[in-house]
Specification:
two-stranded antiparallel sheet, 8 helices, Stress_Response_Assoc, DUF2382 domain-containing protein, DUF2382
């Protein structure tokens, strides 16, 4: 069982790239066709000319057919691929990865430009007026103002800390001891028996005396005396933006003298059309009344 998947493109090169992408995915190239505006309006006379008619009638509802037909008339390209039902999802995913257009969004854009979504009314009007021999398109463009925000660098502050050494000179008083040995001449006789009584006079002894001195001891203590704080604040303010946007306006000269109308019509034009219609009705009734009186005079009634 086969299924037809479609994708719409703005140019032929994108459509051909999508066709090549499907071919690499085991889709038969003969089952992938690219349709352009040359196929629209030539539905009879040969396989190529009848291709669009057969695809539109077999695979598309009337509404989709009119939309694709409008896109082809505007210069687009329609890719139609007949794939197996099991490979349809894969083919659709591959086409989504190409440069195909969002067709629903494109239809909304056409409707905003005045397209009615169906070609039947236009075909009926063309049939009443005759075949179109020349056609020109004037795009009506309107600019929209969009205001965004971006962040820029206006300035700032940078603080670098470093260490500097400063020499310090201080005076400190230090105490120092010195031991000296002196010999003094003493001539003092001992009393009789004193040597026996004082045994310390004749004994061995050792006497020591230690010298002490003070020396400078350096100690440094760090203390935080001050701190530097970097702080950033933010505030919001309103700013007025003055800009100019442009749009296209057209005046249509219908060839009836100096009358000019907007391309979209106007209330005053409808009033004038209504007044002319009422004048034509009154003139017609007067003519019918005169004709009726003339027939009475001639006795033909």
């Amino acid at each position: 069982m086969s299924r037809t998947v479609t994708a719409f493109f703005d140019n032929r090169s994108d459509a051909q790239q999508a066709r090549s992408r499907l071919s690499t995915a085991s889709v038969d190239a003969d089952r992938v066709r690219i349709i352009d505006q040359s196929h629209v309006g030539n539905e009879s006379g040969g396989q190529e000319r009848g291709l669009w008619s057969s695809i539109k009638s077999a695979f598309m509802p009337d509404e989709d057919g009119h939309a694709y037909e409008e896109g082809l008339r505007r210069g687009g390209y329609l890719l139609c691929a007949e794939v197996d039902e099991a490979e349809a999802d894969r083919a659709i995913a591959l086409l989504d990865e190409t440069a195909s257009v969002d067709f629903d969004e494109r239809q909304d854009q056409w409707r905003s430009q005045g397209w009615g979504g169906s070609s039947e009314a236009a075909i009926g009007a063309d049939s009443a007026r005759g075949s179109t021999v020349e056609e020109e398109h004037i795009p009506l463009v309107e600019e929209e103002l969009r205001i965004g925000k971006r962040e820029v660098t206006r300035g700032g502050a940078r603080v670098r800390s470093y260490v500097r050494e400063t020499p310090v000179h201080e005076q400190v008083s230090l105490r120092e001891e010195h031991v000296s040995v002196e010999r003094r001449a003493v001539d003092q006789p001992l009393a009789r028996g004193e040597l026996d009584r004082d045994s310390d006079l004749l004994r061995e002894r050792t006497v020591e005396m230690t010298e002490h001195a003070e020396e400078a001891v350096i100690d440094k203590q760090a203390r935080v005396r001050e701190e530097l704080v970097l702080k950033k604040t933010a505030e919001e303010h309103s700013e007025s933006v003055d800009e100019t946007v442009r749009h296209t306006e057209v005046d249509v000269d219908t060839g009836r003298g100096a009358d000019e109308r907007s391309a979209f019509g106007g209330f005053s034009d409808r009033q004038n059309d209504g007044a002319r219609s009422r004048d034509d009705d009154e003139l017609r009734r007067e003519r019918e009344g005169a004709s009726y009186g003339s027939k009475l005079d001639r006795g033909t009634l």
